[in-house]
Structures
1.
Amino acid sequence: MSEQAVRYQTKQAGFAALIGTVLEWYDFLIYGAAAAMVLNKVFFPAIDPLMGTLAAFGTYAVGFLSRPLGGLILGHLGDRVGRKEVLILTLFLMGGATTAIGLLPTYDQIGIMAPIALVILRLIQGFGAGGEYAGAVVLSVEHAKQGKRGLAGAWAPMGFSAATLLANVVFFSCLSIMGEQVFVEWGWRIPFILGSVCVLVGYLIRRHIVEPPAFEKAKAAREQSSKRIGVFSAIKRHPREVLIVIGTRMGENGFAYFYPVFIMAYLTTGLGFPKSTALWGVIVACTLQLIAMPAFGMLSDKIGRKPVYIGGTVLSMLWLVPFFLICGTGSFWAIILGFVVGLGIAYPAMMSPQASWYAELFDTDFRLSGFAFSRELGSILAGGLAPFICTALYSWSGHWWPIVVYMCVLGVITLVALAMGPETVHKNIEDNHQTITQ
């Protein structure tokens, strides 16, 4: 392949990672925003508002239960068959479930079957998402040259930023145009149905991607040796790395859903702010993320993945108390500033270097399955439970201090796991595959 063709595939892989991750996070963030504003009324109308929010966040957490299974199975297929085929499959799994949620009858129409169907669709959505992000990162990182893998890995985290921005712009636009009554009646369906557009765009891009050289090299070596990789081989080969990924996910993934999901509900239900206040905070912060993600990715190529990750974790923890104090002022612009620092600067410093670091931790033969399974297992323990636990703590105490303690505990776990992990910025990812038998 010519140098020009290599550069083209590298750019295509990065853009494919961006689009797919937009869909993954759009799915989950649309649901998170809907859970905080609408789904408690549409699917759980028989209970009081706070308990309805808890029930909606409970179904939100259910979507995370199937993510490790999806990461294990889809990641295994990606390591054996190819990154491209699995990434096309994840698009249709996630996008199909998201669109179906937008068409789902409500509790008033079909009774208890409505929340049951909602849970089933969330499980399908989570299964597909379990292989999406890791596959997108691995595809872009394996196509990148050494010394630029941090920047390449930032394409997928940028998808998080774009998806959060897109999801909240769509919600804000629909809510503003329709008004709250119409939005609750049927307008909430539109953001879910629009997820099908991401599926189409993602498919048109991903069908032209070729497999990365590192994967082709590892696959050829396996075929010559007639050795096979089992479903659990990644866990057996890299038990330490799996634990490191789970640990480092706790703080990052907890903060990922702390601001756009829990704080959304806290400001509206707890403090009585207009829904637009939290939406604007998320929108401004995620616009900044589109610059911060590649910037921190490039910085991690210069000084290492771990220093950048540690800095983001510490800043996220230190900003918790000032953020809640800012919320108590009632100032719109002060709250916007709170989101900018917490979600626009501190969080990208964790998310961006994490992508390439996770890909570099695992050998090529186990890269996608090891990355996907351990990352998504961490999602259950962190982001999947964070909005529910934060809401429950606030309901119990009536104050934000237990939430600060809880989020700091997640941050400390991340710092400990980071201390246990190696620095991988100079690792040659093409020469480290070690196939094992099952």
2.
Amino acid sequence: MSHTSATRPQFSHARARRAGFAAFVGTAIEWYDFYIYATAAALVFGPLFFPEADRLAGIAAAFATYAVGFLVRPLGGVIFGHIGDKFGRRPSLVITLLVMGLSTVLVGVLPTYENIGSWAAVLLVLLRVLQGLAVGGEWGGAVLMAVEHSPEKYKTFYGGFAQLGNPAGALGATLIFGILSAQGETFLVDGGWRIPFLLSVVLIGVGFWVRYRVEESPVFEDKVAGQEQSVPIKYALGKNWKPILIGIGLLPISTGGYYLATTFATAYGTDPSVGLDETLILNAMSVAAFFELITCLGIAWLGDKWGRKRVMAIGLIGSVVFIVPQFLLMSTGPEWMIFVAFAVVRVAMNFTYAPVATILSQLFKPQARYTSISLSYGLAAAIWAGLSPLAATLLWDATGTVWSVIGLFAAMGALGLVCLAIAPQHVDDDVYPGAVGSADAGTEGTWNKESFK
């Protein structure tokens, strides 16, 4: 049964901060695990696991195994979404953290092609599948824990805590690979690449402790727990299929564009035709991740002040504009401008990423929300993030120019703008009696379809 007004969970900034911090720590660890794989795929997995291919083919093969992690995300969303919608957000998030951590550590002890031949690539793919399943259930749950602890006027800000995990994980991954790549030309290939994966075991313990102590989502407790409901995936596909499709269309830049600006950019910049040192690229991405990290909450705060959809629209346009100098400067320099270009692009993309947690979560009513947001984000990641580095590599190889990749990026941005304009936003703040936009104020379940409000 639903709580009465007297017994409903009450909003407090202290509770929202705890939920936000837990979301941040968990997503930071899981994105660190994900990004060290992405960076290793761009730098060393080609020769280590696909040595019979030429350089570009080896990179494409490594990116194909990288894409597998995205392709299974929707399945992870269904599995962990079912747990999150039936038993609570918290237990699902604890399990995803453990699955991700274990699979990442096992990558760190994996034999290479030199040791066991083609079985090395098979095992790499299997561990990548486990990573993808875990992330498929992680992001949606972490977002809901942060957003569902907040009333409407603070949702975008607290949703930004979950988004902090991405730049923090990226910063940790690029920093450690930058340090390791500076140890000598062959250090990474000779076994140094294993260190970032093995370090994950320490982070898992910290994340488990933080995440296990956080309270359950008040929206789940008030509107979902104990209620008669159909199987979450059945409800999601039967009732939420339209907003799921809109959500997929919202995310080309926030997911796929992000990997074009980072993972593909690493492979492009270190190609002999461009000739940048991999340490320079990794350092530039570390600086960019730092600026993304320190601007995330400020941009999320602007989402509550200006309108979360308006902020995302600014980011979509800005990302398309600034990706051009990033790629062009990589072949012309000067080096300091490469650092500036990487940072500007990441901040622009942060305008698409910081508010999208709340935008996507509020596409759906609380029933089957975990499954719906995870399915939407997972399918978007499979399509846009999973395939974009591979598609960009093939486009670049076929055309001989990076302008084809820039064109792909621009098309993805245009689709995001169209879907953003039609995306509805559900209000469920009646969990908090008397809150702005609550049922007590007479606006339960309203949908905002204004284009960029």
